[in-house]
Inverse folding.
């Protein structure tokens, strides 16, 4: 691909758009995004959530038992629950606790100091009409919908907005409970599908049926979900050696036949992802696709599917392939702050291209990457501000598309697929079931590769525009003389890149050069200036031809 070459007159400016402004954050955003002492002094190990869902009134009521380990002594803890939800009581060892509300945060006070090292629990009773999503999944909340036959169809999607819009929790990405039980009472005749395994179903004889589900592995709060509809249940298996992964599909009953054919792409997808990233992490909890009244979401072991059984022009269903990729990138290993959400989205978006490479070859994957590249805006850095509830901006998808091109570029910078894919699997093993951050991910990559790639990731993650390959060309008798350097946000940035060295019968030959921030010169025989190009099929960089203008008199 020949990306547009910019002509810069007189001087080149560094691609430092890091100063682009993000939205103004509120006090509530800070309470939600900051890991204050009221939250860091305890870690939740288990949630036991019990709710009745009144669909007609859009109303929920019940309680959550929050089991936690005390990391240090404290007298007050922060629990998160949206302010529109009413608190009935908060109970500890049979006694009601005092609390105060500050926007969507609840500060719970204990009569005696809570001592470090102990495991304890509180029981949090509440009720209310949870927030309704206006445009799920981008705008979080409940989706109170109906299927094409006019029957109730209820879902929840709350990434970004927060799980605390519908249940009390420590709503911070750094805190993944070890497990969770969900007991949801729904109108009899409807099916309720959640994360993990179905433990029991009980008709309560009062017009409601209780479904109890259990998740056995650590899970991010926003992954916790419920889906209520007239579902049909399709069951299958995926075999990996001696291991068997259950595949369960819950779809609207009149879509069962379509789903049985369309979902055949799940098995080869899992095989490809296990090839590149390692074994699926949730064999114990299974894999599910659940038809939802919105586009999709990566709910752990319960992937939300709402793409109407459509494949894209590359022959796969984007929602199945992308959201399932999050089972590795986002659900198995997670970021510990919203600012580092690229760890979820960049790797998963690149997983789409790798799926195509696995199924149809590298050249098809590159075509897909070039299709994705058109969506890059280069307006904001991929990494956002830390310690606030940062949900990105409406005009910024770069943690997806620039992120996938960053990883594709990194693959060719490493120039060793065995090492590159070893790093991807190594990340899955090293951060298994953990929440982590950019610095830790980059530190692992540096150690695994034996090289310092911190400048590379700093350039692509913390600056809005890609590095610029600045160059001048002088015609020579038998070719050209190329003068080149990097213009980048990172001081003394150096990264290898491929450039054309010759062309014959329309086929280009590339060589690798390593520009720095200082000018270098190389002679390229047997090539015309008009034939010169930078390999922008493998590297996300901006070629910048420098033309100096004569000084004015």
């Amino acid at each position: 691909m020949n990306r547009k070459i910019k002509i810069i007159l007189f001087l080149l400016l560094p691609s430092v758009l890091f100063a682009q402004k993000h939205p103004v954050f509120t006090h509530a955003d800070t309470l939600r995004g900051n890991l204050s002492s009221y939250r860091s002094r305890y870690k939740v190990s288990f949630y036991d959530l019990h709710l009745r869902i009144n669909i007609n009134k859009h109303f929920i009521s019940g309680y959550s038992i929050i089991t936690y380990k005390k990391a240090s002594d404290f007298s007050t803890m922060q629990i998160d629950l949206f302010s529109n939800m009413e608190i009935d009581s908060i109970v500890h060892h049979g006694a009601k606790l005092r609390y105060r509300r500050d926007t969507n945060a609840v500060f719970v006070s204990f009569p005696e100091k809570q001592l470090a090292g102990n495991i304890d629990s509180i029981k949090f009773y509440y009720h209310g009409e949870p927030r309704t999503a206006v445009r799920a999944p981008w705008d979080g909340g409940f989706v109170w919908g109906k299927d094409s036959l006019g029957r109730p169809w209820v879902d929840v999607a709350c990434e970004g907005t927060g799980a605390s819009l519908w249940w009390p929790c420590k709503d911070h990405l750094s805190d993944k409970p070890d497990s969770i039980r969900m007991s949801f009472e729904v109108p009899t005749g409807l099916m309720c599908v959640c994360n993990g395994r179905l433990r029991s179903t009980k008709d309560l004889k009062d017009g409601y049926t209780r479904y109890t589900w259990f998740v056995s592995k650590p899970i991010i709060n926003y992954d916790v979900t419920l889906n209520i509809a007239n579902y049909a249940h399709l069951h299958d298996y995926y075999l990996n050696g001696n291991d068997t992964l259950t595949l369960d599909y819950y779809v609207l009953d009149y879509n069962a036949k379509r789903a049985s054919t369309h979902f055949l792409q799940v098995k080869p997808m899992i095989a490809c992802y296990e090839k590149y990233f390692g074994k699926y992490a949730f064999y114990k909890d299974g894999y599910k696709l659940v038809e939802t009244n919105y586009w999709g979401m990566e709910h752990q072991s319960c992937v939300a599917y709402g793409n109407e059984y459509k494949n894209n022009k590359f022959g796969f269903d984007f929602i199945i392939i992308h959201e399932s990729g999050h089972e590795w990138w986002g659900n198995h290993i997670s970021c510990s702050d919203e600012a580092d959400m690229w760890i979820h989205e960049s790797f998963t978006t690149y997983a789409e291209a790798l799926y195509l490479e696995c199924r149809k070859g590298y050249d098809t994957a590159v075509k897909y990457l070039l299709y994705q590249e058109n969506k890059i805006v280069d307006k904001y850095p991929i990494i956002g501000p830390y310690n606030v509830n940062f949900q990105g901006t409406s005009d910024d998808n770069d943690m997806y598309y620039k992120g996938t091109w960053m990883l594709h570029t990194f693959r060719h910078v490493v120039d060793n697929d065995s090492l590159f894919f070893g790093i991807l699997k190594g990340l899955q093993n090293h951060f298994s079931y953990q929440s982590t951050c950019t610095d830790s991910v980059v530190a692992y990559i540096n150690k695994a590769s034996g090289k310092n790639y911190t400048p590379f990731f700093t350039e692509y993650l913390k600056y809005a525009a890609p590095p610029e390959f600045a160059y001048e060309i002088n015609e020579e008798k038998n070719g050209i003389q190329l003068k080149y350097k990097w213009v980048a946000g990172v001081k003394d940035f150096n990264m290898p890149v491929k450039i054309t060295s010759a062309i014959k019968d329309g086929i280009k030959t590339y060589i690798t050069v390593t520009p720095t921030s200082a000018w270098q010169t190389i002679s390229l025989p047997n090539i015309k200036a008009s034939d010169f190009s930078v390999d922008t099929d493998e590297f996300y960089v901006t070629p910048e031809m420098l033309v100096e203008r004569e000084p004015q008199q």
Remarks:
- DSSP finds eleven helices and 29 strands in the chain.
- The longest strand covers residues 42-54.
- Residues 1-20, 548-553 have pLDDT under 50 and may be disordered.
